[in-house]
């Protein structure tokens, strides 16, 4: 049996739950195979593999790398699976994590000038590998400064041209793919329907792309049809996953609710 969720985040990046809590839930959901894909870091990957084995669930090392297609001017997320080393992935990921944390600290400074109160010492404790806006929003809720994670602060300050609606520069998508390949991993384009980056696929395959995420919470029927067509054309595998973030996701998805395509089972055979 192959019931796989290959897109799951933990508290190592921006999920409200830790790996063991997720594995217990995965066991209840009947998930047989999974990959934890924390953003831009392989931290705890080895520990997570051992933990999954304890629960009788097959796991492979995973990561989700943030990138950008500078020719098409599109954000691109690349999932890396089954890497045997991590030097190249970490070299790129560390820089992204550093920039993201610096970006969030600037956002905290702005929030404090707007009358919110996020002490510097609290900011330093946010996140295990870096600070994410979810951590900031969660702190505001827990301290009674905001009613919900995705309420007024999120919509009016972090989004819609609000004072904290600014981002970092990301590595080139081709460089990310090549880093994953150099670490002997498989590179998969995450949720192209969500970021509308189908036009990047040809160039990404030239860089070494191995697959495309078929099933994802943001994908509708037409997205799945397009992914299938691209995968047939370029002979790519198809994956899938819930993109699970626990309560740190605006639209909560069910773990295992977007299972990986059968063709992705090859990732577990190497």
UniProtKB/TrEMBL annotation:
Pfam families: PHP. SMART domains: POLIIIAc. Residues 4-69 form the Polymerase/histidinol phosphatase N-terminal domain. SUPFAM superfamilies: PHP domain-like. It comes from the Bacteria. GO terms for molecular function: 5'-3' DNA exonuclease activity; 5'-3' RNA exonuclease activity. Coiled coil: none annotated. Gene3D superfamilies: 1.10.150.650, Metal-dependent hydrolases (3.20.20.140). This is Polymerase/histidinol phosphatase N-terminal domain-containing protein. The lineage of its organism: Bacteria, Bacillati, Bacillota, Clostridia, Lachnospirales.
């Amino acid at each position: 049996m192959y019931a796989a969720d290959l897109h799951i985040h933990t508290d190592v990046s921006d999920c409200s739950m830790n790996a063991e809590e997720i594995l217990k839930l995965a066991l209840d959901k009947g998930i047989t195979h999974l990959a934890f894909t924390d953003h831009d870091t392989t931290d705890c990957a080895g520990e997570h593999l051992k933990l999954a084995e304890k629960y009788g669930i097959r796991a492979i090392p995973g990561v989700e790398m943030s990138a950008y297609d500078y020719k098409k001017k599109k954000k691109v997320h690349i999932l890396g699976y089954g890497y045997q080393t991590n030097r190249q992935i970490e070299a790129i990921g560390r820089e992204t994590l550093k920039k993201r944390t610096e970006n969030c600290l600037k956002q905290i400074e702005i929030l404090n000038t707007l009358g919110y109160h996020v002490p510097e010492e609290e900011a330093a404790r946010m996140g295990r590998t870096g600070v994410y806006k979810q951590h900031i929003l969660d702190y505001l809720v827990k301290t009674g400064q905001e009613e919900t994670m995705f309420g007024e602060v999120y919509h009016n300050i972090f989004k819609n041209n609000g004072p904290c609606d600014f981002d970092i520069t990301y590595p080139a998508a081709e460089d990310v793919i090549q880093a994953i390949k150099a670490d002997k991993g498989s590179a998969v384009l995450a949720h192209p329907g969500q970021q509308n980056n189908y036009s990047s696929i040809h160039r990404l395959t030239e860089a070494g792309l191995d697959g495309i995420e078929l099933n994802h919470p943001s994908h509708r029927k037409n997205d799945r049809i397009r992914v299938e067509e691209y995968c047939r054309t370029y002979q790519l595998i198809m994956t899938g996953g819930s993109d699970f973030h626990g309560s740190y996701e605006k639209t909560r998805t069910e773990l295992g609710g977007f299972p990986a395509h059968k063709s992705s089972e090859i990732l577990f055979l190497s």
